[in-house]
Amino acid sequence: MIAGLPGRSLTVPQFVRRSKPLTFHDCRLAVSHAPGGLVSSFFDIQTSADSPRELDVSSYLETLRGFKRASAGVMMQTMLHIVEMMHSGHRSPDDLPAIRISQICASKDGIGSPAAIANLIVIPETFVDHCLGADFATIESVIASDSDLRWWRYPWIAYLGFSWAVAHEYMHLLRSHWIFDAPDGTRTDEVSLATERDADLCAMAIIYRYLQRYCVRVSDDATLRQIALYSVFWIARSLPRHSAAATHLPMSVRLQDMASKLAMLREDPNDPPDPGAELPETLERMAYLQSCFVKCEKAYLSLHPNEESMKAEVMAAIENGTLDRVGKTWDELSQLVRDPRER
Ligand SMILES: [Zn+2]
């Protein structure tokens, strides 16, 4: 147990093969699931014939030294804790997924046959480095809070942003998104957009619920929601832009969407979300989360002056009704997946 981590020590899930092969594709954020996964074009992973291909989390941590080992350890514990929380919350009948860190590139025939990827989440080491090395705005510059924010100066952005990416992947498993795939493992763009959005929103919801469960004595609810947004924003915003526009919405729109989702979630997890913003507290949350979002973007652009603002993409998506369209597709699909809670 490492000081400062809320929660408890976790055992590392072991690899378990399921009878049903999973064929969903790489979400391009962090994790390569499929043969020929897109990670190789997304992260610059060095190959080495001497490196083990994939390591379980404990073995991976043993390869690290010093500060990185300590930081990665807390990050992995946070992530495993969140994965376990999702697993028990959804009362999944399946085993916990194995989580492995890939130290080499996923090549064309890389991660393996569909059977070998069943219930397995592979995280490129470069994504671990991406999270641990993220430069970010100071919390006081983007979050409006009456709480003492000093506790949050630890690399929570890395811990929570990393956990969100893995939670996104695990949502694909938990919600059986693979059932929408064609027999050859492909998926229509429309279905991809809808399932990616579902994974994004549910992963953001679980980050908030985690903070709510373990950090409510540290900060008030409004601060915790902003911490969730700030963390995911920073890790996702600083990823290279990808070109899979047909299957994924732009990251700008995804982040805006996740900010709205955070506002809709009621404080009591047993209460249904408020997507129509009919409650005054939802409107209040929308206001401070939107403000946090804008401050994050401004701070990001001041640290990365050569990057384009996300504003035009977000405005275009609002004008074109993109999220409404994708949301309607998901509403239809969601009848077929299990346990669509939080939606
Ligand atoms: Zn995905």
Q: Would you give an account of this structure?
A:
The protein is mainly alpha-helical and 343 residues long. It has one domain (2-342). 50% of the residues lie in helices and 4% in strands. The protein has helices spanning 39-42, 57-62, 66-89, 125-132, 139-142, 156-174, 189-215, 221-237, 251-264, 280-303, 311-320, 322-334; strands at 54-56, 98-102, 120-124. It has a 3-stranded mixed beta sheet. Helix 4 runs antiparallel to helix 6 (156-174) and helix 6 crosses helix 7 (189-215). It starts with 38 loop residues before the first helix and ends in a 9-residue tail after the last helix. Residues 1-51 and 105-117 have low confidence and may be disordered. Zinc ion is lined by residues 27, 168, 172, 196, 199. Zinc ion binds next to helix 6 and helix 7.
Helix and strand layout, with pairings?
Elements: H1 39-42, E1 54-56, H2 57-62, H3 66-89, E2 98-102, E3 120-124, H4 125-132, H5 139-142, H6 156-174, H7 189-215, H8 221-237, H9 251-264, H10 280-303, H11 311-320, H12 322-334
Parallel strand pairs: 2-3
Antiparallel strand pairs: 1-2
Helix pairs in contact: 3-6, 4-6, 6-7, 6-8, 7-8, 7-9, 7-12, 8-9, 8-10, 9-10
Tally of helical segments: 12
* Unreliable parts: 1-51, 105-117
What's the shape? Answer: globular
The radius of gyration computed from the alpha-carbon positions, rounded to a whole number of angstroms, is 19 Å
Q: What is the chains' assembly state? A: single chain
Helix and strand content put the structural class at mainly alpha
Q: Specify the helix fraction band.
A: 40-55%
The amount of beta strand, in percent, is: under 5%
Q: Strand count, sense and closure of the main sheet? A: 3 strands, mixed
How confident overall, as mean pLDDT?
77
How many distinct domains?
1
Order of helices and strands: HEHHEEHHHHHHHHH
Hetero groups: zinc ion
